[in-house]
Description:
By secondary structure, the protein is α+β, with helices and mostly antiparallel strands.
Amino acid sequence: xxxxxxxxxxxxxxxxxxxxxxxxxxxxxxxxxxxxxxxxxxxxxxxxxxxxxxxxxxxxxxxxxxxxxxxxxxxxxxxxxxxxxxxxxxxxxxxxxxxxxxxxxxxxxxxxxxxxxxxxxxxxxxxxxxxxxxxxxxxxxxxxxxxxxxxxxxxxxxxxxxxxxxxxxxxxxxxxxxxxxxxxxxxxxxxxxxxxxxxxxxxxxxxxxxxxxxxxxxxxxxxxxxxxxxxxxxxxxxxxxxxxxxxxxxxxxxxxxxxxxxxxxxxxxxxxxxxxxxxxxxxxxxxxxxxxxxxxxxxxxxxxxxxxxxxxxxxxxxxxxxxxxxxxxxxxxxxxxxxxxxxxxxxxxxxxxxxxxxxxxxxxxxxxxxxxxxxxxxxxxxxxxxxxxxxxxxxxxxxxxxxxxxxxxxxxxxxxxxxxxxxxxxxxxxxxxxxxxxxxxxxxxxxxxxxxxxxxxxxxxxxxxxxxxxxxxxxxxx
Length: 478
């Protein structure tokens, strides 16, 4: 019923490259010029700015550093070669005069048509302070892709590249007083300016936290959603909350279900993101002379179809800022990261280059019925006669990796005939039997399992994002 563990390992290698704004044109296969490719170019920056009111309505939007400015390639400019990442980076630096890297994990997403194929990818700025730029891209769908809709299923050929001083890349970095940094990136005579802002990482002024919760970081997803990543120290787990001080990038509509008067679920009209109103975390405040109860919205569901489509609405697991000191929190939430798959300070797996723990505390749903069914069996608060919201959120945001124990083989025992297949120890146990004996004591029952939740899909599911993200420097593959 839910996305399999194997599927999530595969998805973690891909990049979110979904609906973007821009004009699309296509030419017959193999006949495009650089100008044709340019006119099909779509950039995530434009998509985010169209969805975020504070960016869309900014009076200095067109003149500020980092404003999206494009320039058409001169006649005779060679078009990019899919099999040559250098030519792709050179093409992008040639047609992008300036831009802003909004998503908080440092990806600048692009799409264009090339030789009758839809190419989706990114420039990765996580190592730009060291003078290194990564790129990754793949072919998906076709030139008839409809703007605003998920990419067609299926990922074709993938190409990646890493460029630094040895490859001729130069980077000039200028920090600003606002915390943002400006990078002038040059390769093969082409240059572009990119701004990496710190706009969405600060703690929201009106964020409400429960006892035992702590703010980790602000997150701006490639979908345009501004979120707050928090951590619950009492029940070690992460949560994504909707930014309380900024308007959502789309309309959130109530989900119709039989419990609509007891629990409020809202769904994004385009993204399919599902939020639950957490009134228990609210307070009372006076607004325009009226006393009212405040509350917060917690992300509890992401459409599985969008995850499989690998578009902008695949969830915020891939936009956690890369420079956060996360190791103590990851050890508490995901015990397997202590020894079975150790991580560094920022959540990168040690010994697995460019591979990072994916924080995904929400249900990957095929139908919103999976979320509303959980409401129907949730424990009821005796005072309010409503389902216990805190417990319901715990169920809907439970992650597989919170209880995950990776399978492993024990170290070979020289007393067991050099570990030959089928060899048995003195007690007559085979290696396979011994393996089960070693693993069994390490498996833990899901914490906070309650009888009222025993049949809840949240416990059968928890979305199995165990986690690998990327080979070198991309989300495509990550």
